[in-house]
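Q: Structure tokens for this one, please.
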Amino acid sequence: MRPKNTLCLWYNGTAEEAANFYARTFPDSKVNAVHLAPSDYPSGKQGDVLTVDFTVLGIPCIGLNGGPIFPHTEAFSFQIATDDQAETDRYWNAIIGNGGQASACGWCKDKWGVSWQISPRVLTDAVTNPDPAIAKRAFAAMMTMTKIDIAAIEAAVAGP
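A: Here is the predicted structure, written as tokens:
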């Protein structure tokens, strides 16, 4: 039975490659089905991969090979909560090491243009701390980072 709500991600012919990468990289992720086009369409031919049903960390997704007309933007991202530096590094390095690119404040983009926020729970807890001084210090530390450094966030929370 299909889920009631599914994220649809638009790809330029690379939905299956992306889905396979996500399935290898993240737990509770898999490629569920690959569907071929029943006839020619604007960006492909009959028999090409048209859609891929996959799951990323338990979230149902469909990759649609719709062509180059709608590229991914930072307006959509997967936010991955991590528990420690090793997990943060593992996901960050997997995305960057597979043709992705680093951005700021824990954001990166995979080689297909999908944005990811690799966000340690320590960071989220710190920047939402009810003590405004702690939240401000943590936020200021985060603003200097590319990949999040948990020890530096913890030092900022501890204060001067």
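A few notes: DSSP finds five helices and eight strands in the chain. The mean pLDDT is 96.
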